[in-house]
Amino acid sequence: MAKDKTMYVCENCGQESPKWIGKCPACGQWNTFKEIKVSSSVSAPSRGINAGTSIQNKGREAAKVLRLKDISAHDDPRIDMNDAELNRVLGGGLVPGSIVLLGGEPGIGKSTLSLQTMLNISDKRILYVSGEESAHQLKMRAERIMAKKSTDNVMMPHDNFLILCENSLEAIFEHIKEIQPDLLVIDSIQTISTEDVESSAGSIAQVRECAAALLRFAKTSGVPVILIGHITKEGTLAGPKILEHIVDTVIQFEGDQHYMYRILRSIKNRFGSTSELGIYEMQQTGLRQVSNPSELLLTDDHEGLSGVAISSAIEGVRPFLVETQALVSSAAYGTPQRSATGFDQRRLNMLLAVLEKRVGFKLMQKDVFLNIAGGLRVTDMAMDLSVIAAVLSSNVDTPIDEGWCMAGEVGLSGEVRPVARIEQRISEAEKLGFQHIIIPKYNISGLNRKKFNIELVPVRKVEEALRTLFG
Q1: Which of 34, 143, 207, 419 has the highest Cβ tally under 10 A?
Q2: Given pLDDT bands bounded at 50, 70 and 90, which one contains residue 149?
Q3: Residue 68 carries which DSSP code?
């Protein structure tokens, strides 16, 4: 009998090599080649075919060549997930025949989000395949999620929600053929394996072939598939990079386990925008949708406290007001500390240099600590003005008056640069009861000031903003 062959595959991009090499020639990453065994009886091209087509029904019609003008441009109706935040991130709902990859850190709430979403869909036959948990564990989680919705403390899920605890891809497709579900959930793709690839579940070859087979099933049957994936310690999705290229939508579930808020962010979406954002609050009974995050991120008891500034930020296309906290103290050791939580550390160093060079405040011998309240990580450049205001407020130990918020990007020369979607930022601040907002002077042109009941304070330089706040 012929011996099994050994080959090496880059876990980052999927590049194959007959021998181990240190640096991948395709993606340039180091130490990413992993050894896999290839059966000599199955050639490389046939492995991809056997992983999917041999376990699906072979009676389907062959694909036809169509003229572009003959193809209908009408979109299929999307599946309502009964979750406004998830629908927004998906671009309006789940597209039939699409394949969605949901990733996140362990314990962040991926399985909870998918399970409670499926429990809310009662008009579809759903098959939930779990390769990590038992049916008893899923039952207990479902009871906890449905506890507050039950009137008589009795768990009453709909009859179309089906659970399958299985790791074999061939067995999963046998059940799919028998059940004929309208929606399929795989939790998780790293635990599924096929017999056509001789390696353990979670390996590069297994993840690639199983995902390819599920993609063929979704496209040929029109059944949407939701895959739950693990992430590595670097924060990227585990498995080959080709996994992200295969799927239609990649959604990242982010947040800190020590905080109650979770952010659902779209990284790739073939059917919608990648700038959408969903916010959830983790509770004992599951994840609660946060329709107005500004009210939860702002605290009412910071009056009279220095080092607190309110910024009108935008994440994705959603405006919300976020509280920026800063603490400046004398350095206890020779080298001053610079620490930022929820904000870019290098951006903070740049803003401190601007504050010292352009405004004249000496912070060389001061420790500076910055925190974005609520555990969120904000990347909006309009946070610059609030960061400088909070640092200076803590440095001079003077609180900012109540009712003030701000939005503006700070340049290296100390100018306040314009920001995008200024009307949305102003409307959000006005809705939450703020009386004054500092905005860049360049944004005031073309803005109808009469439509706002909040006072607009345009500034051109950082000195003008600080003079307005502290006199």
Answers
A1: 207
A2: low
A3: G
Rounded to whole angstroms, how far apart are CA atoms 447 and 465? Answer: 20
How would you label 307-319 residue by residue, b for 16+ Cβ within 10 Å and e otherwise?
bbbbbbbbbbebb
Residue 53 DSSP code? G
What is the Cα–Cα distance from 68 to 66, expressed in whole angstroms? 6
User: Any idea what DSSP says for residue 30?
Assistant: B
On the question of pLDDT at 255 being above 60, the answer is yes
Residues 6+ apart with CB under 8 A from 128: 114, 115, 118, 138, 161, 162, 163, 164, 185, 187
Angstrom distance (rounded) from CA 462 to CA 468: 10
E strand or H helix that includes residue 250: strand 249-255
Nearest C-alpha neighbor of 117 from the set 143, 151, 76, 145: 145
183, HSE (Cβ side, Cα atoms, 13 Å): 25
Task: Write the CA distances from 299 to 293, 295, 309, 402, 432, integer angstroms.
Answer: 12, 8, 11, 12, 12
Residues recorded for the chain: 471
In degrees, rounded to 5, the angle at the alpha carbon of residue 293 between the alpha carbons of residues 291 and 299 is: 140
Q: Which two tokens stand for residue 311?
A: 């910024």
Would you call 74 exposed, middle or buried from its count of C-beta atoms within 10 A (0-12, 13-18, 19+)?
exposed
- In this prediction, residue 106 carries a pLDDT of 85
Q: According to the 3-state scheme, what is the secondary structure of 141-194?
A: HHHHHHCCCCCCCCCCCCCCEEEEECCEHHHHHHHHHHHCCCEEEEECHHHCEC
The per-residue pLDDT for range 400-422, each reduced to its tens digit, is 998 999 999 999 999 999 999 99
Do 293 and 404 contact (CB within 8 A), yes or no? no
Helices (H), 316-439: 345-354, 384-396, 422-431
Coil, strand or helix at 107: coil
Half-sphere exposure of residue 442, counting CA atoms within 13 Å on the CB side?
13
Q: State the average pLDDT over residues 271-277.
A: 84
The pTM of this model reads: 0.73
Question: How far apart, in whole angstroms, are the C-alpha atoms of residue 140 and residue 289?
Answer: 22
How far is residue 80's CA from residue 102's CA, in Å, rounded to a whole number? 17
Top mean-pLDDT range of 21-35, 37-51, 57-71, 399-413: 399-413
Between helix 135-146 and helix 110-120 the angle, nearest 10°, is: 70
* CB-based contact 465:408 (threshold 8 Å): yes
pLDDT of 198 reads 75
